[in-house]
Design brief:
Elements (H helix, E strand, L loop, with lengths): L30 H14 L2 E6 L7 E3 L6 E3 L6 E9 L6 E8 L4 E10 L2 E10 L7 E4 L2 E3 L1 H4 L21 E9 L9 E8 L10 E5 H7 L8 H9 L16 H11 L8 H14 L2 E6 L9 E3 L4 E3 L5 E10 L6 E9 L3 E10 L2 E9 L9 E3 L2 E3 L16 H5 L6 E8 L9 E8 L11 E5 H5 L10 H10 L7
Parallel strand pairs: 6-11, 18-23
Antiparallel strand pairs: 1-16, 2-3, 4-5, 4-13, 6-7, 6-9, 7-8, 7-12, 10-11, 14-15, 16-17, 18-19, 18-21, 19-20, 19-24, 22-23
InterPro entries: EvaA-like, EvaA-like_sf
Protein name: NDP-hexose 2,3-dehydratase
GO molecular function: lyase activity
Amino acid sequence: MIDSVSGTRTDTESRRSGRAVSSVDDAVMSMADFYSWFNTRTRANSFQVERIAFADLSGWGFDPDTGNLVHESGRFFSLEGLRVRTNRSWVSEWGQPIIVQPEIGVLGILVKRFDGVLHCLMQAKMEPGNINGVQISPTVQATRSNYLRIHGGAGTKYLEYFRPGSRGRVLFDGLQSEQGSWFLHKRNRHIVVETDDDVPVDEDFCWLTLGQLHRLLLLDHMVNMDARSVLSCIPPALTGPHDEHAGDDSFTHAVLRSLAGHGTAVHESGQILSWLTEVRARQELVQRRVPLMHLVEDGWRTGADVIDHRDGKYFDVIAVAVQGSNREVTAWTQPLLAPKQAGLLALLVKRIGGTLHALVQARSDAGMLNVAELTATVHCQPGNYADTPPEHRPPFLDYVLTAPACRVRWDVLHSEEGGRFHHAQNRYLMLEVEDELVAPDDRYRWMTLHQLTSLLPHSNYLTVELRSLVASMRSLTPRM
């Protein structure tokens, strides 16, 4: 539930050091009205998620020849085995379950200007894996199987605005990756369309300004992963002009200047692209799909209601029965991947020559399509490294875990994809540092915020986690 006065969740404690300063005065819906609407939508619909045995899945089953967990239609997704070989110095080869979902879904936000102010049509959507059930989602969030109605349910609302022949103006359209640790080569189409139409607003949808969305990004488990990812891709020019000196503190001022491309970068953009290409060329990432049943050799066990690893780490695969009264199908069953613990995404930022830079890494994950993508300085599940030798722990992990609170510029818990993951959450941090940090190897580079955001129109450059950080970063700026 949301406290309609303070705008904070009543069951969590705010840990944010930064604050949103975006104007919301010209919004169609006030923030107080939003919190009231959101609570009403949460109460208005019936949601229930219950763990079940794999044998109780309807339409899903283990293939007798491979042990892969598949749907009888051959659509949606499957759980298969993946063997990976890399040239890392620590655990260079392993096997794991992986979600295989080759079809490309649509993540679309419909926007419209009211009195000259850009508004986004967002929905309150339940996903079976969400910690709190309902979160703010894009206008359209649908796999190809869903919007083609393979499930036999209702159609996807507002899909017509994102189909060929729509009268809307396309402001952004590109393919972006999802979690490379758990998906094999997964991408979704991110599309933002502006309309002048008088759009009928369904009761589970509302118009919000970017300023309001930036405020909501500072709340735990409020804006879902797909919405954060699309919001990160909205070109800054579309939000209207802003005063780079309008920040209420020096850090906000530094964020604005870096986002706007003012100041001097440590590395030219051409050098950044050449560096990432070099990393991709020399990094070894050999992926081989194998039957899920073969992963017993890698420590994975299949039980009546869970697939897990004998070490108690990484993630489980579980099955759930779902009821959602406002979904296209109101009851169904499905598998979900359930991480063992929360992850940590920490972005270290520093003023270099007066310009704010972020320390990013070129990271390779098991299921990545293009070998490596840019992500946060620290990107891991800390619990997986509890018994790892110090020299092989993720660089800067211990630095982040012991950083003084005064260096934290924001600190928020965000949920990951609730349609495929059960209670997957990451702690997203931005730390401003003054220390002379020495990168352990050539996988790290300092980049300005403008250099980061300029890569968003291109596919497979920024991980979905880094895109969430970019979206949160904009919550510190005074935008409409």
